[in-house]
Design goal:
- The protein is built from nine helices and six strands, in the order E-H-H-H-H-H-E-H-E-H-H-E-H-E-E.
- By secondary structure, it is an alpha/beta fold.
- It has a six-stranded parallel sheet.
Length: 220
């Protein structure tokens, strides 16, 4: 019996920042001294971000985004200011649009929810206030000083709800951070597949849904 839920936020409760990131990558590619595509910038930015976030010293998500983008801009010869470019992304984090089905789901769910997000605490608090959202508990990477899929994130969430790994579901859209992260902590994972991707063979998912309304029957 499911007694609680752990929910990722961006890409699960609200829309992810894909469009904003693509616009930033377009600008970097357009201003680069070498001929590069948006895809090249996005791939390089993702790699650099993961390297910064995985470093021995915890850095906030805002710092990770700006530092990794600055590295990519230097590599392609883009003379712009990463702080200025990332400003649109940071504004988005504070007022993202709600994902389809979120309101309907939240109006029907009866079990306690802990949001588990890699975003900085102030940005998440502002985004929740923007939509008038409240949850039983909230855990951010800044609180734990670690990012998903680190087990510390999931341990903090379980402790916040005072529930065991076998009493909850973790729901998120990232295969590496959410699905594999939860699985490594012994928590069944539900994958939000809002990009229409193929489920990799052997992936440890309890269910695959497109939005949160797909959870209603699972936890009834």
């Amino acid at each position: 019996m499911i007694k609680g839920l752990l929910l990722d936020f961006y890409g699960t409760v609200v829309e992810d920042d894909d469009t904003i990131m693509q616009a930033i990558a377009d600008q970097v590619a357009a201003d680069a001294a070498t001929s590069v595509s948006r895809g090249h910038v996005m791939d390089a930015w993702t790699r650099e971000y993961e390297a910064v976030a995985a470093g021995p010293q915890f850095r906030t998500l805002r710092h990770c985004a700006m530092r990794s983008l600055a590295t990519v801009m230097a590599e392609v010869g883009c003379a712009g200011d990463p702080t200025t470019l990332c400003a649109a992304q940071f504004r988005y984090w504070q007022s993202p649009p709600m994902r389809p089905g979120t309101r309907e789901f939240l109006s029907q769910v009866t079990v306690p929810i802990c949001v588990v997000s890699d975003v900085d605490r102030a940005d998440l608090d502002t985004a929740m206030a923007h939509h008038g959202l409240a949850f039983a508990a909230v855990v951010t990477s800044e609180d734990v000083r670690a990012y998903k899929p680190d087990r510390a994130m999931f341990a903090r969430a379980l402790a916040a709800l005072d529930l065991g790994a076998d009493e909850v579901l973790h729901v998120g859209d990232s295969m590496s951070a959410d699905v594999y992260g939860a699985h490594a902590s012994g928590i069944p994972a539900v994958w939000i597949n809002h990009r229409g991707q193929a489920l990799p063979s052997g992936t440890p998912v309890a269910a695959e849904i497109t939005d949160l309304t797909g959870l209603i029957e699972l936890i009834a």
